Amino acid sequence: SAFRLAQKDLIVEGVAHDPVEGDFYVGSVHRRKILRVSKKGRTTDFTTQKQDGLGAVLGLAVDSQRRQLWACTSGVAQMIEATDEEKGRGALMKYDLRTGAFIAKYPLGGGGTGHNCNDLVIASSGDVFVSDAESGEILRLLSGATELKVFIEAGRLKSPQGLALSPDNKLLFAADYGGVLHRIDIATRSAAPLHADPTVALLGIDGLLFYKNSLIAIQNGVNPHRVVRLALTPGLDRIEGAKILEMNNANFDEPTLGTVAGNVLYYVANSQWGRFTADGAIFPDNRLAEPVILKTKLD
Question: What is the pTM of this model?
Answer without folding.
Answer: 0.97
